[in-house]
Amino acid sequence: MKTYKHHHPWGFTLMELLVVITIIxxxxxxxxxxxxxxLKAKDRLLAxxxxxxxxAGLSEFSQEYGSLPDRSTATAVIDRxxxxxxxxxxxxxxxxxxxxxxxxIRSEDPFxxxxxxxxxxxxxxxxxxxxxxxxxxxxxxxLNGNSAMPLDYPGRFIAVSPLTNAAKGEFDPGAYWDxxxxxxxxGSVQHLDIRPDSHKAHxxxxxTLLETGPGTRWGTEIHPVIKAPKFx
Length: 232
Description:
It contains three helices and ten strands, in the order H-H-H-E-E-E-E-E-E-E-E-E-E. By secondary structure, it is an alpha+beta fold. It has one domain (about 40-225). The strands form two sheets. Strands 1, 2, 3, 6, 7, 8, 9 and 10 form an eight-stranded antiparallel β-sheet that branches. The radius of gyration is 25 Å and the shape is globular.
């Protein structure tokens, strides 16, 4: 008598494949937001670290030249150092470049913050036009009108990231998970919430970062202006 053995097919049936694919898609859907959050938190941490390094240079510059960088200190830096670096522009790159020309910061890393626009990582080449090229700076620099921001009020901000519109004080909520990295005049770094309706940074008591007047960080005597980093 012949006996017949039943052979189980090694391949998956269509139904089994669909079940596996569904499970993989579901797992991917759960993991992608967590991975994205982790990456954005890492970028925010890097921006925070670099902001503290930037403040060290700004503080030393203020001691050397009597204020933070502005148009008047650019002339003083040129007179003292005979630098060939471009210091006469009006972007954050130009103002921060004074720190390199003065020999107070010897790396481009402190000026970098990862954003959608600052895609060029610092190469630490300082010759001629290579110092702080477009894309190597991720922080906006805050002036008091055309003058440097005074350092006598700890709660005031001097550099911020990630900007989308410096003139309006608008930020990219997608860069650091709805947060602004804000460097204060005392060297501390605050993480401000970005309002979903206006993309402006919320400071306190319903006020946004550039709002002035009673009850704000600036009061009535300070007129904050954000100088955007140059990306192109």
